[in-house]
Design goal:
Strand content: 5-15%
Shape: globular
Strand order of the largest sheet: 3-4-6-5
Distance between the termini: 133 Å
Helix content: 25-40%
Radius of gyration: 34 Å
Order of helices and strands: HHEEHHEHEHEEHEHEHEEH
Mean pLDDT: 83
Low-confidence stretches: 21-33, 61-69, 71-76
Length: 366
């Protein structure tokens, strides 16, 4: 039996290219579609030809060409920004000590975090210096004018009740960076629509809340009207005008921290090498006075360390999961506030020694 074998596509049919389909559909639809800007059938516009000017080998000709192109494109270079704030601009104000000079820098001083040519202040690696001398009396008078008359007790209670709760929309979180420069702009942005702003502090800055309050009032010009542990309320003042707020240039990136002298010496001041080694061993074997958590609230740490030093000579603080950088920050704060001598940072454990201050005082009094 003969079976006919079919082929597909049949030989009688020929494949029509897709371009012909588009041509036929364009002809058929031309009578139906009256829109000349029909997207599927709108002819493509020809690419514009760019004319390049010939560049000479001389540098002067290159500069003139670039300037002419900037004028053609309407690009005008803005002058550097001027700010009348009467202090040096730093990345952090509460966590930096201007009295301690760094011994080195991790990046050149010409790399300003405000951007090239954006600020009329010179960047020194740690701060942007104010261009002229500051009249402190004039600044004080202007701040008192903005604050106006002191708030009454009823007004303070009303503001506290409105802004102290955790669900307040006018809140700024203050972390281990402390009072940073860009935070000042955030405060003034909240002051546009609110009389006060709630600031919640966590981490290392909570060891010294007095320092945080001082820099908030000094750099923003406001007034702290409420303080409970790590929560603050910063009031803007009676005569505050959002339209006349100070010019605060923003830092475009976080600058690298400079290199400071070593915090822990090989031999502690006032001790020999053997005594220092014995103090470290004794501190590691002792029980921890307290355990600090990451991004915790350390408001009562300084007082507890001072009380413990009345009976103990060496103390250990357990800082597990806190981080090496935060441990060193805590050691620096305790050294200045207690005061004490950090003698070891090992496995996120801080060993501090009270020093010989008390012994010298007892000898002098006797």
């Amino acid at each position: 039996m003969f079976v006919q074998r079919f082929q597909w596509p049949p030989k009688t049919l020929t494949r029509i290219p897709i371009s012909q389909f588009l041509y036929l559909s364009r002809i058929t639809n031309h009578t139906v579609s009256h829109d000349p800007y029909d997207p599927p059938f709108t002819p493509l516009s020809k690419p514009t030809k760019t004319t390049h000017k010939p560049l000479d080998k001389n540098k002067n000709s290159i500069v003139t060409v670039t300037r002419s192109t900037q004028q053609e494109l309407g690009v005008s270079r803005k002058p550097p920004l001027n700010s009348d704030l009467p202090f040096h601009f730093r990345y952090t104000y509460s966590e930096s000590n201007p009295a301690v000079d760094p011994i080195g820098y991790r990046e050149p001083k010409r790399f300003s975090p405000f951007g090239p040519g954006r600020l009329d202040r010179k960047w020194t690696g740690t701060a942007a210096l104010a261009p002229q001398e500051v009249d402190e009396e004039k600044v004080r008078v202007e701040r008192n004018r903005i604050l106006g008359d002191p708030l009454t007790d009823c007004e303070v209670e009303e503001l506290v009740e409105r802004y102290r709760h955790s669900d307040c929309s006018r809140q700024i979180n203050l972390g281990k960076g402390g009072v940073t420069h860009n935070m000042l702009d955030d405060i003034h942005n909240h002051w546009k629509r609110a009389e006060a702003v709630r600031i919640k502090c966590t981490g290392v800055p909570t060891l010294d809340m007095d320092n945080v309050c001082f820099h908030l009032e000094d750099k923003s010009g406001g007034k702290v009207i409420y303080r409970h542990k790590n929560v603050l309320l910063l009031y803007r003042g009676r005569n505050y005008d959002p339209k006349n707020r100070p010019v605060i240039p923003l830092m475009l990136w976080k600058p690298y921290a400079p290199i400071f002298p070593k915090l822990v010496k090989n031999i502690a001041d006032g001790l020999t090498f053997e005594e220092t080694k014995e103090m470290r061993d004794r501190g590691l074997k002792s029980l921890a006075l307290m355990k600090l958590t990451r991004n915790g609230v350390y408001v009562n740490v300084v007082e507890r360390v001072r009380e413990a030093f009345k009976t103990e000579e060496v103390l250990k603080l357990d800082c597990s999961y806190v981080g090496t950088s935060d441990c060193k920050r805590i050691g620096v704060k305790l050294r200045d506030l207690v005061p004490c001598v950090p003698i070891l940072f090992k496995d996120e454990q801080i060993i501090i020694w009270r020093g010989k201050i008390e012994e010298e005082e007892t000898l002098s009094t006797s």
